[in-house]
Amino acid sequence: MTVFIIRRILQSLLVVAVMTVLVFAGVYAIGNPIEILISQDATEAERVAAIARLGLDKSLPEQYLAFLGNLLQGDLGRSFVFGEPALQLVLDRFPATMELAICAMLLSIIIGVPLGLYAGLKPNSLAGRSIMTGSIFGFSLPNFWQGLMLIMVFAVILQWLPAGGRGERGVFLGIESSFFSWDGLSHLILPAINLALFKTSLVIRLTRASVRETINLDYVKFARAKGLKPRRVIGLHVLKNIMIPLVTIIGLEFGSVIAFAVVTETVFAWPGMGKLIIDSIFQLDRPVIVAYLIVIVFLFITINLVVDILYAVLDPRVRLSDQKA
Amino acid sequence: MWKSVSVATVAMGLVLGGSAQAEDIVIAVASEVTAMDPHYHNTGNNNQIVGVIYDRLLHQDSNQQLGPGLAVEWGPIADDVWEFKLREGVTFHDGSAFTAEDVVFSYERVPNVPNSPSSFAVYTAGIAEIIVVDDYTMQFRTNGPYPLLPIDLSTVQIVSSEMADATTEDYNAGPASVGTGPYRFVSYTPGESIVLEANPDYWGGAPEFDTVTYRPISSDAARVAALLAGDVDLIANVPTSDIATLEDNPDVVLSQGVSNRVIYLHVDSRRVYSPYVTDNDGNEIFNPLQDVNVRRAISMAIDRDTIVEEVMEGIAIPAGQVLPEGFFGVSENLEVLEYDPDGARALLAEAGYPDGFRLTIHGPNDRYINDEQIAQAIAQMLTRVGITTEVETMPRSVYFGRATGDENGSEFSLMLVGWGSGTGEASSPLRALLHTRDDETGLGRTNRGRFSSAPFDATLQLALNTVDDELRADLLARATEIAMREVGLIPTHFQVNTWGSRAGLSYIPRTDEYTRPTNLVIE
Predict the structure, then answer these.
(1) Residue among B32, B192, B233, B245 with most chain A CBs within 10 A, to mutate
(2) Which helix (H) or strand (E) holds B224?
């Protein structure tokens, strides 16, 4: 297991190295942030000084080497725009995005698994078919439009929930979070639903497919034949065996929910990392873009690691050290 | 100074009665601030907000006319010495008294803010020496005549000298954010909110609202939805496509006003070959844009009324010069050039291009109101008179760097750009956009077309060295007339900004496009 984890970490370092090269070359190719940063009244001398201060007068390889040197000392550089350490900026916005992602993921599991289970057990019933048809909407509605519709219906017309922004945070066990205050939760509901809809559809479809497959296997038939209550057959024998594909997908999707909350965060003015990365890309704030991507790469790798370990817990046949990952 | 107002404060929509006292208001703006340090970054997003926490020596009113701020009297006492009498009895939010020492401290801090992406040093650089006569009298000795000193100083916020070692982080966190302005700093959460509270001791009278919260909502549709949902009381940058529906909504009040921003075309008028100009078969030709008649033909071929009516949905004003009427230094002799496609064809033929040529117009697609559509409309209009024009638009992060180009000039031949006059008078666009580019003096720094005219330069130089206001206004107008006659750039329209507020409130539009609680009034 230790070997497995070490190998994973080495892999991740390689991914980070490749990613930084790509981002550096990419942002360099897009253009020079200086035109957006400096005021229109600035003099040429000021412009030249600003370029030099940001190190943009050096060649691309020189800039990259300087970045690598600082990286080895744990310094990801300062944001061109905010003047603050880039990593700190990203991490400051991390909790807001995590709140949103956790809430969305929980919603999709709480809604998706039971619905998928039902649709799998009673595939020909009206309700079962309606669930499957409904899940197609979840897949096909554009996230941006769907978010605006949620705002129009629940915030503008019904006026039940706020249209956007992050509410007050409550404090519980020393942790400050939107989960612990009513105002915070009310701000969280709409963006979380918007983010969850696609994932819910995915969970429904996956659960249904797994249930359909499992339900006809011999051990389920045997359990039924033994005269076990349907509840126990489903709750223990079926559900436990469909967990492996579900955990894989939920794990991977959790990463993508965090990384791609960008649209939802923009529509709902949610002050998370996605909003920061979009603004940073518009302003070519390279240190923040790099810091964000490094955080995301490590996040994906951690999640995958957790998923692999969960496999071993759920399915004793899996031995991590045996995997040539 | 708004002499003949074409579009001034036009409050539209039905205002329902019952003016419930609004104590706490929330304002949604399109962009975030980059810091709460008033000297960190010279950008409109920051200035509009720090400008209510701090005061300047002089204030620009809603129409950018100068008035007293922390200084009550000012004027030149010699050609190169200005004297300012400061307001007495003003206190900072922490209770300390405001004196000349704070002004000195602020101006000395301006060029030395670490990591500042764009400092305010350009506005204080012309001061050779600051002389403190007494606590409430100061003199500024300048490098030669400097008629723009009062205007330039109206952009620099005065901070407390007790915050001697304060860093930008200290301003962001709060302890250093101490000004003399109408609202006090309460909190700043990046990307989320800025909360201010009333300063009841403000020298200009206690402000209208108890607390003010700024929230950045970058998505246009989401910003409008937040207003409709009642989450916010005032929004900036109402998109033109939503204006018609909002006008019919009794719960919303729209306020519109012309801005100091002209949208114009810069034309590559210097180079012998221009990168995006070819003949009709795609072969390189001598740059026809060097010819003033070709530039004028392009200007005549643009139907400004159609751009305003169709593309801007009526929310803009056709332009014939670089600032709308009413501003200091604007020419009264210049009319908006009439749409004349036949005249344009005749001019082209006369210039030796009876069959026209090929051209590409470049523009941003996320910077100005409806910028991409404007570029497309102009391309069609030019194609109609024989100049086959293609359109290429791109995000501003790519566009402006390429439009500025390098020492060889812009990467483009014809480009759509805008310029807001921060000083609220004509010298700002004339200096930056039309004077021959000169890196030493900084004149013509944004002259992307490299227009160069000796009579224009001479007239503008004279204006910049004239302290007498009336004479200077006249010289600036003359310079504008020369530039327009030689078609140094092609103005299309002035932007009109729209604010939306909930019923019971209305906004007094600002030409500098700032969104401030001090301009929000209870009906």
Answers:
(1) B192
(2) helix B220-228
Interface probe for A, chosen from B124, B152, B218, B437 (most Cβ of A below 10 Å), is B218
Assign B28 a pLDDT band (cuts: 50, 70, 90). very high
Measured between beta carbons, which residues in chain A are less than 8 angstroms from residue B418?
none
B121 contacts A164? CB cut-off 8 A? no
Q: Of B189, B185, B183, B190, whose CA–CA distance to B175 is shortest?
A: B185
User: What is the C-alpha separation between A259 and A273, in angstroms, rounded?
Assistant: 8
Residues B136 and B269 in one domain: no
Q: What pLDDT, in 10s, does the model give residues B394-437?
A: 998 889 989 988 888 899 999 999 999 988 999 999 999 999 99
Q: What is the CA radius of gyration of chain B?
A: 24
Do residues B161 and B281 share a domain? no
Spatial separation of the C-alpha atoms in residues B386 and B355, rounded to whole Å = 6
Residue of B nearest to A281 (CA): B397
- Assess A39–B contact: CB distance below 8 Å, yes or no: yes
Do B143 and B284 reside in the same domain of the chain? Answer: no
Chain B residues lying within 8 Å of A81, measured CB to CB: 34, 41, 117
CA B359, CA B349: separation in Å to the nearest integer? 17
Q: Which domain holds residue B74?
A: 34-170
pLDDT in tens, A165-191: 898 888 887 778 888 888 999 999 999
Q: Is residue B6 part of a domain?
A: no
Residues B279 and B382 occupy one common structural domain: yes
**Distance between CA atoms of residues B118 and B40, nearest Å:** 7
Single-letter amino acid, residue B26? V
Q: What count of other Cβ atoms lies within 10 Å of the Cβ of residue B335? A: 11
Contact criterion met (CB below 8 Å) for B101 and B161: yes
Q: How many domains does chain B have?
A: 2
| Domain harbouring B315, CATH code | 3.10.105.10
Structure tokens, B484: 């327009």
**Residues recorded for chain B:** 523
Q: For B438-448, what is each residue's pLDDT tens digit?
A: 888 888 989 99
Taking an 8 Å cut-off on Cβ atoms, the answer to whether A151 and B222 are in contact is yes
Instruction: Decide if the complex's ipTM is over 0.95.
Output: no
pTM score: 0.88
Distance CA A228, CA B70 (A): 85
Q: Domain check: are B419 and B285 in the same one?
A: yes
Residue A218 sits at the chain B interface (C-beta within 8 Å):
no
B280 and B137 in a common domain: no
Confidence of residue B2 (pLDDT cuts 50, 70, 90): very low
